[in-house]
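Encode chain A's predicted structure.
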Amino acid sequence: MKAPRVHVFRLEGLDCAACARKVEAALKEVPGVVGAQVSYASGKAYLVLEGEDALKAAEARLRPLGYRLRADGEGGLSGSWPWALGSGGLLLLAFLLDHLFPWGPWPYALAASVGVFPLALKGLRGLGRNPFSMQVLVSLATFGALAIGAAQEAAVVVFLFLVGEVLEAQATAQARKALLSLGGLLPRRALRVGGKGVEEVPLSALRLGDRVRVPQGARVPADGRVVSGEAWVEEAAFTGEPLPKAKGKGDWVYGGSLVEGGSLLVRVERLPGEGFLAEMARLAEEALLKKAEVERLIDAFSRRYTPFVLLLAGLVAFVLPLFWGDFRGHLYKALALLLIACPCALVVSVPAALASGVARGARLGVLFKSGAALERLSRVRHLALDKTGTLTLGRPRLVAVVPFGVGVEEALALAKGVAQGSAHPLAQAVREAEGRALEAEGHREVPGLGAFARVGGKEVGLLRPEALALPEEVKGAVARLEARGHTLSLLVEGKTPLALLAFQDAPREEARAVLGALKGMGLRLHLLTGDREEAALALARALDLEAGEVEAGLSPEDKLRRVAALAEEGGVAMVGDGVNDAPALARATVGLAVAEGTEAASRAADVSLLSLEALPRAFALSRKTLAVVWQNIAFAVGLKGLFLLTTLLGLTGLWPALLADEGALLLVTLNSLRLLWVRG
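Encoded structure for chain A:
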């Protein structure tokens, strides 16, 4: 027997959130289907199948219910617009005949019968699975209206419902298009540079290490690093920023980004199907399968709402006439209540908004791994930030050389000679500094002490200043430089100090503006770092942070305890990039990892950020999304409650009740789609 595999399909006929639950439950009963998840937002089914027979059985199970599995990538979903056109045409004809010839209710009855046919068929197919589907309720209301002679209203009800289905399908398609169109940014072909010159090849022919030429006006075919050339590259699809960025040798470029000026030669580092665009689409789709807390609450409420209203309809139809008579009038009210009983607008109100929020986040460089993460982020009041690699570049630079008895150039040349044999970040910073390097040999490193080499027959080393007993002059220089937040290395010949080398990890260019924006949102900031207090305070001054917002000298365990405490004080979001941040990211109310960081941090986080600039967008988008969620719930519950009351009072009838249901459904869908265009 073959090992189970995950298959992804598009679902034809998936037109409501309740349908998604029905299809998922039906698929789980099929022999050979080990697991099944259906996402209404993306219109996809994720099946774990044991073999081809299981797939055939799944298709056979869904076919009578009116659904069809289509391979991921096939054409779009079909809608009910042909039936809506037919029903509308017959309704118009019935209206004209009613005014020209006294034919009675028969033309309207014909229009209602034609329009209700696909609804009744679909309702019957799924009757065993869901006896309270909207199709069943509309069909019962239509046939009941025909039975009591309200043919005109029955025809209007069916037509309005079919039109509502078409409009809902179109609106939902827009959200799905925003989510699924990320891969469309990649070009179809690439210009590969090889031994035979430049050849045009399909993206599937690219391999890791290939070099591709990207001329002006073309999109980069795959994630990679610039080998040569300079250009302005627009990355709005990843960052939400319309202004292009300058890219040159050594810079990273994303597949799908647009070269607006200049030309680049790029080495392929990630295949097109495995690049950042593919990762964004995958994470966004996975997020839609994980329900937020408010979504679970609404689902639970909706499962109780429908039986309650149906029971109320039964009382109105069969009990009230025993006391007040007017059986036909009470039956008419009960039929209107059937339409109000459908919870579609309420069920769709949350996932539609979350799907739009997740899809928009992917366009703004914010990858939410679940709708729950998006929801929780809107509620946190504290933000904990790592220092190195998050607020700083994570690459120390040599900023000063303080000599003792030798020249600055000589001291730097000696230091560069020693640094040639060390992989330490400070040694790399020395090598990158401008200036000549003296020839050195016999390189060696002593963990916890420093690096050594022989230069001109003498042993020279780069040490931690506290490793030696220092003269007062050197001690004073060390104290002054450390007070400014510098990291220090001592250049020595034997045990004689020759110079102090001062390093600084520069803050990210955007960090100050980002922190200012976050403070403007009312967030309380906490800089948590394992670095020395002097270095942390120096960074805080550069970024306009208060001393009380800085906590230095923390171990990973200290960070974890501090984040746990903040989580109890109104919720905390943690931003980090390193392996040592992973425990705190996992413990936080919401963990956010910068994409440039380590894999461990990315896996532990709930949200991935393309850059630090995306952090304020993440908070703004989460808050806007939750605002839309509650607006949708208010629209859905408010309209249902209003028309429930007016129907019981006899003020509204069948078609206004349906208009309220379809109107609420369309309203919450369109309101959710607004999120696809927010700036974040």
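The chain has five domains: 5-71, 81-178+291-355+626-677, 188-274, 366-393+508-609, 397-504.
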